[in-house]
Amino acid sequence: MKIKEITVVSGKGGTGKTSLTAALAAFAPEKKVLCEADVDAPDLEILLHPRPEREHPFMGMQTALVDAARCIGCGKCEDVCRFDAIRMASGKASVDKTFCEGCSACTIVCPQGCISMEDTRQGTWFFGRTDLGPMVHARLKPGGENSGMLVQLVRKEARLTAEREGAEFILTDGPPGIACPAISAVTGANIALVVTEPTMSGKHDLLRIAGLCERFGTKTAVVLNKADLSEEGSEKIEEACSENGLPLLASIPFLFEVVHAVSQARIPSKELENYLAPIWEKLKAL
Ligand code: SF4
Ligand code: SF4
Q1: Alpha helix locations (H) across 61-199?
Q2: For the CA of 75, the nearest ligand
Q3: Are residues 163 and 95 in the same domain?
Q4: Looking at residues 108-116, what average pLDDT do you find?
Q5: pLDDT for residue 14
Q6: CA distance 235 to 269
Q7: End position of a domain, from candidates 92, 121, 150
Q8: Within this chain, do residues 205 and 251 fall inside the same structural domain, yes or no?
Q9: Where are the alpha helices (DSSP H) in 49-179?
Q10: Does 112 contact ligand 2 (Cβ within 6 A)?
């Protein structure tokens, strides 16, 4: 059986993407694996409460390390570093890891050969179990690099888990935006489900993420959330979907009960129950 992957994304944050992902996970009867690919702001775990089984360091790019005992304080590394990552103090150089981009230029110019590159932990990924199925999730450390690489890693682990446990599909909570982590989240997924809202920025960012999905060959479908907050805005989203051949699976009104459920770290499945079956059936048809 071929495992399907649905990645829920949004051009912008705050559209209700994670709430809908959690509610779909609770609704879908099929055997599934849950994947948190919003590694900068991993909120799905707040709603799904995974029980941790394993945790692994995520080693991203290498960063520079100065052997202070051999440093003669010539400052050549500081001059060559385009990212202002070298600090000189008391005649010695040191590297501010937050700024280091791992380009290795300092290792080349150092006359003492006292700068080396070392693996650097950029975050952590986890395997756990929820009441709805196994879950792979991750947290990038604040200021951590290589978020796209971490997204790729959790998706790969989710797929291995699905194969091992005979799951039919993977439901992935993707990141907002259209940058590197979003590219990593939608590439190779069967469907990117874009959650948007009836605002100018909602329309603008919907078209940007849809363009990204098209560029990477991922089929796109749309859910319009908080639709009743602006009739005009909703019409504009509907027009944008129709003009760009994007299936609009549902329009959900603003439901205060959803906000209330999420504020209590509870999946808003009951609150969204009228919308989940049609969305899920249409997703499966696509
Ligand atoms: S590896 Fe590159 S970015 Fe990092 S300290 Fe050296 S020169 Fe600067
Ligand atoms: S280039 Fe090497 S020797 Fe010179 S300040 Fe930097 S680390 Fe020290």
Answers
A1: 76-80, 105-109, 147-165, 180-186
A2: 2
A3: no
A4: 98
A5: 87
A6: 27
A7: 121
A8: yes
A9: 76-80, 105-109, 147-165
A10: yes
* Nearest ligand 2 atom, CA 72: 3
Question: Ligand 1 mean position to 37 CA, how many Å?
Answer: 28
- The percent of residues above 90 in pLDDT, for the chain, comes to 90
Q: Which of 65, 67, 76, 80 to mutate to test the pocket of ligand 2 (most atoms within 8 A of CB)?
A: 76
Alpha carbons 33 and 132: distance in angstroms, whole number: 8
CATH number at residue 67: 3.30.70.20
Q: What is the whole-number distance in angstroms between the Cα of residue 82 and the centre of ligand 2?
A: 15
Ligand 2 pocket member 73 (CB < 6 A): yes
Highest-confidence range of 40-44, 110-114, 173-177, by mean pLDDT?
A: 110-114
Number of structural domains, the chain? 2
Per residue in 223-257, pLDDT tens?
Answer: 999 999 999 999 999 999 999 999 999 999 999 99
pTM for the model: 0.88
pLDDT digits 0-9 by tens, 151-189: 999 999 999 999 999 999 999 999 988 889 999 999 999
Is residue 1 predicted with pLDDT exceeding 80?
no
Task: Please choose from 80, 88, 114, 117 the residue to mutate so as to test ligand 2's pocket, defined by most ligand atoms within 8 A of CB.
Answer: 114
Average model confidence (pLDDT) across the chain = 95
User: Which conformational region is residue 185 in: left (phi greater than 0), alpha (psi within -120 to 50 degrees), or beta?
Assistant: alpha
Residue recorded with tokens 């890891």? 97
pLDDT value at 33 more than 70: yes
Is the minimum distance from the CB of 83 to ligand 1 under 6 angstroms?
Answer: yes
d(CA 239, CA 159): 36
Interaxial angle between packed helices 17-27 and 256-263, expressed in degrees from 0 to 180 and rounded to the nearest 10? 80
Ligand 1 centroid distance, CA of 141 (Å): 20
Let me know whether 93 and 203 are in one domain.
no
